[in-house]
Design a protein that fits this description.
By secondary structure, the protein is α/β, with parallel strands linked by helices. The protein has helices spanning about 40-50, 65-75, 95-105, 125-135, 165-180; strands spanning about 10-15, 25, 35, 55-60, 80-85, 115-120, 135-140, 160. It is globular and about 50 Å long. The chain starts with 9 loop residues before the first strand and ends in an 11-residue tail after the last helix.
């Protein structure tokens, strides 16, 4: 992590069609992703947020080895402090265990839910799962593979972003709002 103050906002990320362009995935004979392209601006966005002191967790459906390959390929293996991956649990989003595993892995508790946002592209799995778990949801709306219309009230996102830059600005705004609720000028403890 960078030398700057640790941020209050905690970021949970989906991977496929949120960060990774799934249509570019190259799979081996075992079905493991060996390489893939990232959406425009995602490499820079993740690195920038990491360098600014945001704690991030990957909350994604898929194989552990696939995520290792993709994020190593793009030199992003260290940006996620925790990885809650469906193969390892074995549950898939919207199951609460996916989000709880990330929460526990970051050493957080139920009171910290107000500072967590889930960023994803799938309304039922990412947004519905986050809403049901009691954390803020951000719909990263740039894939055409899934519906963009909520099918149930619980799939209604708290926020929508359409580009990496728009998402960055939203994250900064949410961080500022969190800091405004507390003593903005005081450094956070290491456990914050």
């Amino acid at each position: 992590m960078s030398e700057c103050k640790r941020k209050k906002l905690i970021l949970f990320w989906d991977s496929g069609d949120t960060i990774v362009e799934e249509v570019t995935e190259v799979r081996n004979e075992r079905g493991i992703v060996t390489s893939a392209k990232l959406h425009e601006g995602c490499t820079e966005l993740l690195l920038r947020l990491y360098q600014e002191g945001f704690r991030m967790a990957l909350v994604a459906d898929g194989e552990v080895e696939s995520f290792e390959n993709i994020y190593r390929q793009h030199e992003l293996e260290s940006v996620f402090e925790v990885r809650a991956v469906s193969e390892a649990l074995p549950e898939r989003k919207p199951a609460a265990i996916m989000f709880q595993t990330a929460l526990d892995g970051l050493g957080l508790c139920a009171q910290d839910k107000e500072r967590i946002v889930m960023i994803g592209n799938h309304l039922m799995r990412d947004i519905g799962g986050a809403n049901h778990f009691g954390i803020t949801s951000i719909f990263f709306d740039w894939t055409t593979r899934y519906t963009k219309e909520p099918q149930a009230l619980e799939e209604q996102p708290d926020y929508i972003a359409h580009s990496a830059e728009e998402l960055y600005e939203l994250i900064q705004r949410l961080e500022a709002e969190l800091r405004g609720k507390e003593n903005y000028g005081e450094p956070l403890s290491e456990n914050s």
